Amino acid sequence: MQMTDSHRAALDDILRWRRDVRHFRTEPLPEPLFAALMARLALAPSVGNARPWRFLRVRDAGLRAQVCEIFEHANSEAAQGYDGAARRDYAALKLAGLREAPEHLAVFTETAPAEGRGLGRASMPQTLEFSTAMAIHTLWLAARAQGLGLGWVSILDPQAMTRLFDVPPGWRFTGYLCLGWPEAEDDTPLLHRSGWQENTDPGWQEARARHGAAPSPSAKGP
User: Fold this and answer.
1) Do residues 75 and 95 make contact, with C-beta atoms less than 8 angstroms apart?
2) CA gap 128, 110 in Å, rounded
3) Cα dihedral 77, 73, 26, 29 sign
4) What is the pLDDT of residues 13-51, one digit of tens each?
5) pTM of the shown model
6) CATH of the domain spanning 17-182
């Protein structure tokens, strides 16, 4: 497929408007739209084509209420790590849309999937969780392209979440997602607008060899 300037411009727009949404409208998503979004997970990259992500759709009100309790407990504990003005700033942040978002997704990573036959992860098994993160990002962009918002809730106790959902022993909790129509459109990250954190570092630099670096184990002497 020949990529055009229109493709590039659209991708730039989606990346710029992809935001961690915390304020949702409560109206439900049409089932065909939800199914189409979840089908996009098949397009996400993964180590060895292992596809280790496991997405659980959470519609049970009791389960959702327990997730809220786990979040509130973890959020309260996290607040204790700040003092003075920083604690007040933290308390003022809205860090989850759990009560408003129409769709909830609990995401786990299968740590020993048969798929992929171990390719690419022998020395770096964490690439399985990296792959799940890539699937989440793929869903995030697909949702944004449909005008939807997604929020990743990370202030949760992984062990409590694992017990709550009674998943197989090889599944590791990766994240909890809120999905739905955003209350408002905004290309400015919430943490920028709140004054918590702005992007100040491009995050990359030129790699340079360390002076006097030891030769690799395979290197041969003269």
Assistant:
1) yes
2) 8
3) positive
4) 888 877 888 889 999 999 999 999 999 999 999 988 889
5) 0.80
6) 3.40.109.10
